[in-house]
Every structure is written in structure tokens, then in C-alpha cells.
Amino acid sequence: QAQGGYNVYRSWDEPGGIRDELNAIAQRNPQLVKRVVLGRSVQGREIIGLKLTQGARDVPDGSRPAVLYSSLQHAREWISLEVNRRMLHHFIDAWRANDKEIRRLLKNTELWFVIAANPDGYQFAFDHERLWRKNLRDNNGDGQITVGDGVDPNRNFNEHWGYDNEGSSPDPADETYRGPSPASEPETRALAGLIDRVRPRFQSNLHSFGEWLLYPQGWQVGTPDADNPLYVALGGTDANPAIRGFNPGQSADTLYVTNGETTDYADTNAGTIAYTPELGEGVPGAGFVFPDDEALIQAEFEKTLSFHLGLARSAVDPDDPVSPVGINA
Ligand code: 0X9
Ligand code: ZN
């Protein structure tokens, strides 16, 4: 059992925790994995990006069509980290086992994993407050992190930031506080910097909960991006979704309006086909507290597998995407 008495979940800081694991993965797989420190959090933790591609350390970043798999912007959404961590292992294990299809994908694409986009908040959720959402910006500068501190990492991007004052909050105490200015937070700059640099063709920005498969734009209803046929080709429809039991849809229409949001940023500024899967609860009523249960966590991962593989397959030749649900683009 780990620190905090969890069976499956591991904090960032603990020995053998997520930070140690990511570092060990990079160290053990020099041919396949390159570790990049994308930035440092408010409290100085590394925002670690792992690039997976054949000859990772020899080929320049951004030289192959990229996919970005990101998770844990919101501190309490531990299932997002676990699902993404398992996706990372899936690629590495299959590559090491000489799986032909995975070898082909990893020769022709570069897959970026940002497993913990908000490591401070994640650690805080283990140590102090299981339901913490935001980063650890000390909004009132009193030297302590308490209710009312933090910036929402998914409202701080420089894309319609604060638009119309609806879909994010100017109030530091609010759970959707957008921060004092666009990209004011180092966690935002780490992710946005990577997006700017490698211009991912596809992104999965994992969150929880609700079993949605959301896509841009979030900042207003009925925007043209929703009509991009790729979003439906790869994400599917309510009747035939790319993740079993999930409902695909344009995020402002389907869920609620947001602004300064990550996938809006990637879509608009890098041309990324960028999804926000909102994972399930594991058991009804669990909400953000997905059970610490190996079988349930593994099942949630397996649900997402074909969708996530579909993004990598489509990146091999972005002009000829491969729909995991058989809908023509
Ligand atoms: O509000 C969010 O940031 C996401 N939901 S969560 O419960 N995980 O906090 C949803 C973001 C999806 N994007 C839009 N709705 N635009
Ligand atoms: Zn979230």
C-alpha cells in the first residue's frame, strides 16, 4: 500500500509515486522515450512531458505528427491520471513486445504524455483536501493555501479568456477562477508552450466526470468547429460513440459554456482536433471520487483504449484519418 493507504492511487511526491515512475520510465526506455520538463508549477514541481517515438532522443520534437494525451488539470480527478498512465504503459509495453501495429505508430508519430498537468493540486488533494480542483496559486498572498486560493487550469488559456464574463469567474474564491490574466499560471504556460511548439494533430485532455466526449468550441454555442467532420468521425455519435457509454458533443452545447479552455486553445491556435473526455464515476454517485479499485480503474481505461489508439492511427497520415467508429471523415 502507498502513502495515504491507497491500493492503486499514488501521489506525486511519495517515494515510488507518479513523479518517480515517470522518471524511471524515461530512464529505462532511451530508444523510445524522451523526458522534457515543460515548466514548473507554482510550488516548483516539474511539469513532465514524455515524448514517445522511435529514436525519441535523436529526432527533433515536432518532426513527426504529434498527439497530446494530457490529464490531471483538475486536482481531484485522479481517474484521469490513472487512465492516461495506463495508456502510456500500453504503448511502451506493446513497443517492447515488438507489436507490429504499435511499432508502426511509434515510427510515424510522436505521442506526448503530460500525465499530471497540475502536480501541486494533485499532491494537495492527497495531503489536505480530496476535492481540491484548482492549482495552488496563493491568491491572497497570506502564505497559506486555503479555500479561495488557486486558479482553474482549464480557464486560464489565452483563447477567449474571460469572454463575456460567462463560463469562468473573475472571483479568486470561485472554483472556475480564471486568474489575473491569460496564461498567468506556469501550469498553463507549460501545456500551451508544448501545443505551440509541436502543434499536435490530435489531443485527448482527460477530465472527470460525466461520460462525455466533448469538443470545441467551449466559449460559445453552435460554433463552426462542431461541424468539422473529423470531430464526429473520430468521436462518434450518441448512438455509436468512440468511448462506450459516453456522449460525444460540442462542449458549449452539450455541457456548459467555458472560456480560456485548453482544447479551445489547441483547436484555434494549433489546428488540433482536441477532445475532452469526461470519464465516468466507477460507481453511481462517486462523482469525482472514483473508487480506489483496480478492476474498476482498469475497466475505465479499457473503455478509452480504441478511441485513444484511433487518435494515434489517425496521426500517421492526418490527411487520411482512421475512424474508430467507422464514420467517414
Ligand atoms: O469545466 C471543466 O473544465 C470541465 N469539466 S470538469 O468537471 N472536469 O471540471 C469541462 C471542460 C470541457 N470544455 C467545455 N465545456 N468547454
Ligand atoms: Zn476537470
Please explain how this structure is put together.
The chain has 329 residues and is an alpha/beta fold. Helices cover 32% and strands 15% of the residues. A hairpin with a 5-residue loop joins strand 1 (33-40) and strand 2 (46-52). Helix 2 (78-96) crosses helix 9. The structure holds N~2~-sulfamoyl-L-arginine (0X9) and zinc ion (ZN). Residues 73-74, 77, 207 line the site of zinc ion. N~2~-sulfamoyl-L-arginine is lined by residues 74, 77, 154, 207-208, 214, 218, 251-252, 255-256, 258, 261, 276, 278.
Strand portion:
5-15%
Give, in order, the helices and strands.
HEEEHHEHHEEHEHHEH
Task: Describe the largest sheet.
Answer: 8 strands, mixed
Calculate the terminal CA-CA distance, rounded to whole Å: 46 Å
Helix/strand/pairing category: alpha/beta
Q: What share of residues is helical?
A: 25-40%
Q: What small molecules are bound in this structure?
A: N~2~-sulfamoyl-L-arginine, zinc ion
Radius of gyration: 18 Å
Q: In DSSP terms, counting alpha (H) and pi (I) runs of 4 or more, how many helices? A: 9
Widest sheet, order of strands: 1-2-4-3-5-8-6-7
Shape: globular
Total number of beta strands: 8
Average of pLDDT: 96
The low-confidence runs, each spanning 5 or more residues with pLDDT under 50, are none
Keywords: Carboxypeptidase, Hydrolase, Metal-binding, Metalloprotease, Protease, Signal, Zinc
GO molecular function: metallocarboxypeptidase activity; zinc ion binding
Family: Belongs to the peptidase M14 family.
GO cellular component, one term: extracellular space
